[in-house]
């Protein structure tokens, strides 16, 4: 694996016509921690992640991975493992074939496919066509794909969608372990109660702006993350 990487976002801004999707957002994400990128629907989380991954051109600002823009990274697919929407699989392909093709594409050995299948607990479904996967199985295959290149950075968008409580407990262990291995883990979620179980640090988005950045224990000291969020947004009303 590449050495630990730090993410740095500075002054990111993006409008879609009349919609100010992201306005002057800046933060850093450190290795060895699970960082939650939290906020309600439409608050600008996915747009920020897409700018970080070079999928959307910002109107202003920069998103840097160890000091470089995504497009400038020498080995992007093996530096940043990304899992955005969990529905971009060819429905007629088995999970294993999907992983093998992606591994070949990014220059990871075939043996890594078996590793990520066990890592994400989808061994049993590996030979089934992804068109028949449940939502939870898709999430796991998405995570397996993100982990193929042994990336020092993981960027996950709503990875708890479709997971049952057991799946969320599993994801929690998975993310903790990834962070303990020195990875930088950024997880976007609109479900604060679930996110509170997963993360060490919290970035709070609201209407395209970053409202707070703090360790979870500090932000939600003596209260729940939901109440802390209501206090933050209530102060704006
Ligand atoms: N391609 C696009 N064209 C037009 N508007 C867009 C586009 N992408 C995002 N938006 C708008 O930008 C705003 C932020 O959307 P974004 O998807 O970043 O939010 P989010 O925080 O990820 O929400 P969710 O929790 O629902 O995933 C929304 O108002 C959305 O409608
Ligand atoms: Mg989103």
Automatic annotation (TrEMBL):
Keywords: ATP-binding, Nucleotide-binding, Transport. Gene3D superfamilies: P-loop containing nucleotide triphosphate hydrolases (3.40.50.300). Residues 7-232 form the ABC transporter domain. It comes from the Bacteria. GO terms for molecular function: ATP binding; ATP hydrolysis activity. Belongs to the ABC transporter superfamily. This is ATP-binding cassette domain-containing protein. It comes from Glycomyces buryatensis.
């Amino acid at each position: 694996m590449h050495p630990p990487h730090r993410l740095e976002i500075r002054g990111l801004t993006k409008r879609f016509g009349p919609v100010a999707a992201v306005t002057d957002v800046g933060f850093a994400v450190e290795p060895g921690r699970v960082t939650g990128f939290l906020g309600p629907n439409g608050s600008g989380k996915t747009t920020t992640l897409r700018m970080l991954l070079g999928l959307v051109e910002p109107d202003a600002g920069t998103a840097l991975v160890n000091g470089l823009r995504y497009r400038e990274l020498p080995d992007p697919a093996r530096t940043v493992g990304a899992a955005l929407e969990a529905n971009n699989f060819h429905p007629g392909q088995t999970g294993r074939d999907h992983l093998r093709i992606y591994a070949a594409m990014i220059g990871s050995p075939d043996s890594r496919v078996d590793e990520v299948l066990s890592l994400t607990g989808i061994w049993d479904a590996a030979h089934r066509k992804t068109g028949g996967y449940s939502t939870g199985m898709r999430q796991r295959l998405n995570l397996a794909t993100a982990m193929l290149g042994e990336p020092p950075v993981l960027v996950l968008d709503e990875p708890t969608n479709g997971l049952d409580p057991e799946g969320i407990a599993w994801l929690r262990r998975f993310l903790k372990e990834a962070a303990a291995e020195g990875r930088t883990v950024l997880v976007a979620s609109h479900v604060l109660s679930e996110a509170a179980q997963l993360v060490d640090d919290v970035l709070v988005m609201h209407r395209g702006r970053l409202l707070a950045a703090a360790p979870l224990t500090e932000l939600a000291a003596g209260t729940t993350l939901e109440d802390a969020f209501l206090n933050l947004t209530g102060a704006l009303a």
